[in-house]
Amino acid sequence: MVKIYKGNIIFTKNKDNFEIIENGFIVVENGKVVNVFDFLPSEYSNIKIVDYTNKLIIPGMNDLHAHAPQFRNIGMAMSKELIPWLNDYTFPEESKYADIEYADKMYKRFIKEIWKNGTTRIAVFATVHKDSTIRLMNLFNTSGIGAFVGKVNMNINCPKSLLEDTNQSVVDTKEILDMKIEEDSLVKPIITPRFIPSCDSELLTELGNLAIEYSVPTQSHLSENLGEINWVKELQPESKFYGDAYNRFNLFGQTKTLMAHCVYSNDDELKLMRDNNVMAVHCPTSNLNIGSGVMPIRKFLDENVSVSLGSDISGGHDLSIFKVMVHAIQGSKLWWVNSDKELDFLKLSEAFFMATKVGGSFFGKVGSFEKDYEFDALIIDDSDLNHDNYSLIERLERFIYIGDDRHILHRYVRGNRIDEPNF
Fold it and tell me: Model's pTM, two decimal places?
């Protein structure tokens, strides 16, 4: 089935430039982009046009790191550093997800908030609880939003209420991997060791084996906090650096891999990320809130490491990837100033590229309006931002900085319009 959308089309093929078509046309067939046009070819003249004239049509937002069970804690405990924050707030909240009814209630709220903020694809951590994780996957399926959902694994260094038996952790993870999920499903599992300090070598070995056996991706945390890095050295003394600890257990690029934070990654870690095609997930709001630091994002780009963006709630305080873009740019300017302007700050096109095409690439051909890309899109009505006499890029920038979810008119995933989930 062919659909045609008319509006101000903005997307990025590369990090340096915006593609702009003023009141142009996107032709979509079976959920995929056929092409974009300044003028509609005659062969499509008999097809009804979905008319968004003067509105902005941009790719959907991709959030590559979020903790679904931490939704209730957004905006809380922002005076804590990472480990006290985990012990005093995060772990007690996650323990509640043993109760499937509580999980159902909170996960529905979480998904509605994702939808509201224009996120069309997301990679999320659930909890150690198998049944609640499956419930989250089912809710995402109902919503129409694309997601990688991870059952968290932890068998050391956590409260008794979350501590897993090693064998049971593997059995539960395998049960989710054995679920009948279509290859083209929008919702899929992802291997999720919380981080090296929460899993012993036996569990890490088993998880790496499962990732390879089932050809499923992996997600975790990397070099977020200096105390955490020292802890990893104690727990895995044979490893040369934090990323090497994951790599020794086949959890660092042996299948598609997301590593969040990377605030203190050294040169050897960056090289291994590049060589293994590990994607770094920049979480600027969380890095600042939890007092971890500022990621030197330009260094990653200069080393050709793929970088996407993550809200990382509830370390982060906002599920809007647009606001994460703003904080990523601002953080890069701090590095620019403190490096005597040697590490250049992010341009708007670079931050937008990370939020769309780079993040989308983890899900396939997603995040752009190039030929054969899945049509994930947001329709932005910025009319009440007084957009007269602004260029289209100026309108986009103003929306990113001062707009909010009220300006998102419609959301599309794989060519389907996604309305607010009716949970």
Answer: 0.98
How would you write the chain as a 3-class SS string?
Answer: CEEEEEEEEEEEEECCEEEEEEEEEEEEECCEEEEEECCCCHHHCCCCEEEEEEEEEEECEEEEEEEHHHHHHCCCCCCCCHHHHHHHHHHHHHHHHHCHHHHHHHHHHHHHHHHHCCEEEEEEECCCCHHHHHHHHHHHHHHCCEEEEECEECCCCCCCCCCCCHHHHHHHHHHHHCCCCCCCCCEEECEEECCHHHCCHHHHHHHHHHHHHHCCCEEEEECCCHHHHHHHHHHCCCCCCHHHHHHCCCCCCCCCEEEEECCCCCHHHHHHHHHHCCEEEECHHHHHHCCCCCCCHHHHHHCCCCEEECCCECCECCCCHHHHHHHHHHHHHHHHHHCCCCCCCCCHHHHHHHHHHHHHHCCCCCCCCCCCCECCEEEECCHHHCCCCCCHHHHHHHHHHHCCHHHEEEEEECCEECCCCCC
Tens of pLDDT, residue by residue over 159-209, are 999 999 999 999 999 999 999 999 999 999 999 999 999 999 999 999 999
